[in-house]
């Protein structure tokens, strides 16, 4: 997984070697190196096996491969070999120039303690400490405060690489750097997380808690670096998961938590029986009864507490559970082809009536919206009956839209809690952390997955341009001799999708 940092402005950074040094010096002015009793760790030790304790912060030693950009030969093979060696020594972080590469350790490391976090506060010389996400956060924070430029941090990598965890460490470190008091904004963000994860995350074959949406968290700072508030934007929620899951995958967490945590009275109120009775949940091949665990029940209790803390009241909670139950009941509406013509007809009207009551739409209107469509030709409205296939599509589209609106409503509520206080200054600076969900290639890929893969390709393209092309152009402009770096340019692929978007979308529709 890689973490790129970009100033948000369009300012073109001069990147000749001399300028880089000058820039670094400006950045360092007025800052102090915070160094623990362990002192400056040994440089040049390539066979590091031990960890070092700086003021009770347990970290790996620094080593010459901390920044792979400084190696004399840079090939993919060398980069991978070096990172593999580092990983075996539990050095999960590596710098490659401005970029931080992180490899998921899949076990708890002791490198995220408060003493470690404090050690990476106001770091003067990056190479005095081992690479760390806290170090990258510190560099971003200081660019913000010293250069007064908004910053953006992009976290990319395949599913399960550790992007969301990294985003959490990054944000926590920003809040500590800004001396945000414990129990302030960080507590609010922590309280909002169970809601976001319950609605936006699901178990996949790659990750038990995979985010199925892209999250852009923007922290808002005063020009002096004091944190004022935050805001979350969400993109590309994988709505298709509500109605279909690939083998070995599950629907969004909230559905299972609901069944584990609702009381018998609530089951009655929302017309629910058990997860195995609902089509949107029972096709993934899991034994759903084994999911009704105490842990799931505890998570549902935590979810309800988070709702309250974020500011949703009991009525909101009831509305939310009603809508979630409605989504499941919508999925159970079934159609058959009517006897006298080839059009769809609902066979279980009791389910339609239940849904109509829950979403407060008269059942005749809901029936006709699902089984027919109106087209307007030359000012004249013509109603056409759908066949079973298209009525089923329409039913699923309704469930997906309802779920997506619900998710948006929850995020709005969270934003209300996180927003800056009214007396905040007008000229603020922002640090954005983009946690996009990863590129994936399944045997059956949804339209959303195509959009996500395209977003990832675009990020890669932006990264190529920023890191290779612009840098090489600047070297050439300034007459600095250098060997051209060869990289795979994905621009033709990105252009294929973006320039002929309408054509492709048309093809996709036809293909579906
Ligand atoms: N820095 C880390 N230290 C320990 N475990 C981690 C770390 N990063 C990720 N993990 C583990 O990997 C899992 C997947 O990480 P996650 O951030 O959800 O992946 P992604 O967002 O890239 O899909 C987490 O649930 C956690 O168990
Ligand atoms: Mg994630």
From TrEMBL:
Domain Myosin motor: 63-512
SMART domains, alphabetized: MYSc (SM00242)
GO cellular component: myosin complex
Record's signal peptide: none
One Gene Ontology term of the molecular function aspect: ATP binding
Chain sites annotated for binding ATP: 157-164
InterPro entries: Kinesin_motor_dom_sf (IPR036961), Myosin-XVI (IPR052838), Myosin_head_motor_dom-like (IPR001609), P-loop_NTPase (IPR027417)
Superkingdom of source: Eukaryota
Keywords, alphabetical: Actin-binding, ATP-binding, Motor protein, Myosin, Nucleotide-binding
PANTHER family registered for this protein in UniProt: UNCONVENTIONAL MYOSIN-XVI
UniProt record similarity statement: Belongs to the TRAFAC class myosin-kinesin ATPase superfamily. Myosin family.
Protein's UniProt name: MYO3B protein
UniProt organism field: Branchiostoma lanceolatum (Common lancelet)
């Amino acid at each position: 997984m890689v973490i790129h940092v970009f100033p948000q402005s369009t300012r073109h950074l001069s990147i000749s070697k001399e300028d880089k040094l000058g820039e670094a010096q400006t950045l360092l002015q007025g800052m102090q190196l915070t160094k623990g009793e362990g002192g400056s760790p040994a440089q040049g030790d390539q066979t590091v096996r031990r960890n070092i304790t700086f003021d009770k912060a347990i970290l790996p030693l620094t080593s010459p491969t901390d920044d792979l950009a400084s190696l004399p030969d840079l090939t993919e093979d060398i980069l991978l070999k070096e990172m593999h060696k580092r990983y075996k020594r539990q050095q999960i972080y590596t710098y490659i120039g401005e970029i931080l590469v992180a490899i998921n350790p899949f076990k708890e490391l002791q490198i995220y303690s408060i003493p470690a976090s404090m050690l990476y506060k106001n770091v003067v010389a990056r190479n005095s400490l081992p690479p760390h996400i806290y170090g990258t956060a510190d560099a971003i924070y200081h660019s913000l405060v010293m250069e007064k430029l908004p910053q953006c941090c992009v976290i990319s990598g395949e599913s399960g690489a550790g992007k969301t965890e990294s985003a959490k460490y990054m944000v926590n470190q920003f809040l500590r750097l800004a001396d945000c008091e414990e129990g302030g904004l960080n507590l609010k963000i922590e309280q909002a997380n169970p809601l976001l994860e319950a609605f936006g995350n699901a178990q996949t074959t790659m990750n038990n808690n995979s985010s199925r949406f892209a999250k852009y968290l923007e922290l808002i700072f005063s020009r002096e670096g004091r944190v004022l508030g935050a805001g979350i934007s969400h993109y590309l929620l994988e709505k298709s998961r509500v109605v279909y899951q690939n083998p070995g995958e599950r629907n969004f967490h909230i559905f299972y938590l609901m069944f584990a945590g609702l009381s018998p009275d609530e089951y009655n109120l929302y017309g629910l029986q058990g997860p195995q009775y609902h089509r949107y949940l029972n096709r993934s091949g899991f034994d759903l009864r084994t999911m009704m665990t105490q842990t799931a029940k505890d998570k549902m209790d935590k979810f309800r507490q988070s709702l309250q803390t974020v500011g949703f009241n009991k009525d909101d909670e009831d509305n939310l559970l009603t809508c979630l139950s409605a989504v499941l009941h919508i999925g159970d509406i079934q159609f058959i082809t009517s006897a006298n013509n080839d059009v769809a007809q609902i066979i279980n009207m009791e389910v339609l009536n239940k849904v109509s009551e829950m979403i407060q739409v008269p059942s005749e209107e809901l029936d006709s919206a699902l089984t027919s469509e109106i087209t307007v030709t030359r000012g004249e409205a013509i109603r056409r009956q759908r066949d079973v296939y298209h009525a089923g599509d329409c039913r699923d589209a309704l469930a997906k839209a309802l779920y997506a609106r619900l998710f948006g409503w929850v995020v709005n509520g969270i934003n209300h809690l996180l927003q800056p206080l009214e007396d905040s200054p007008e000229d603020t600076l922002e640090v954005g952390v983009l946690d996009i969900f990863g590129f994936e290639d399944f045997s059956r890929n949804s339209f959303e997955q195509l959009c996500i893969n395209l977003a990832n390709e675009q990020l890669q393209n932006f990264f190529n341009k920023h890191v290779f092309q612009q840098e090489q152009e600047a070297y050439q402009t300034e007459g600095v001799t250098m060997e051209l770096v060869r990289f795979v340019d994905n621009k033709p692929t990105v252009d294929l999708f973006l320039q002929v978007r309408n054509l492709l979308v048309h093809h996709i529709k036809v293909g579906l």
